[in-house]
What we know:
This protein is of the alpha+beta class and 239 residues long.
Amino acid sequence: MAQPIELHYWPTPNGHKITIALEEMGLPYEIRPVNIGKGEQFRPEFLAISPNNRMPAIVDPDGPDGRPISVFESGAILQYLARKSGKFYGANERERVAVEEWLFWQMAGLGPMAGQAHHFRGYAPTMAPDQRQVAYGAHRYTNEVHRLYGVLDRRLAGREFVAGALSIADMAIWPWISSWRGQGIILEEFANVKAWWERIEARPAVQRAMAHAEKVKTLNLATAGQEGDEQRKVLFNQR
């Protein structure tokens, strides 16, 4: 049997992308938690495979030509796994283009903008002395995320998935939509997105992936890192 892929992971939207893909593709893997609240993403051994000190990252012992390979950045990991498995990346060039369009839409748009909305709505008010600036940031990014939901809603009109058949694009987008409440979004405003989100949520592979997330949270709850200002110093304001 193939050696399992090492998944360096923490239960965040970007981490969920990879567990969902691995479960859907049926590839053997093992989770190696990277507790970002404790700063484990800055350890030298992790930086050796993820030089941008961000998870997720993978190490595939059975890489190209049978030699190990490490991959960082969630979009690159999804593309690598899709090529490796031969699944969820389209059957021809036209289909692959559609998958890549929506994969990069998530990577360049939805993910960063939703992340900023989460930050300004949930974290920044306790960090910044100028509340007027915080309010502007929250307003700006909440509005942009709302616009992006509208883009996705229009795309999903009459479609079951974003790029034809289920693909790595859906796997990239779904975890970020799952956090709609923290983004200031009312999901019922976007009927097509809501129906799509529920279709993905009901998939057994997705349920297995999210069960892994809960297990990692539970096992690491006692050592999740310092709360409050100390944890924020680890997560934010790194130069």
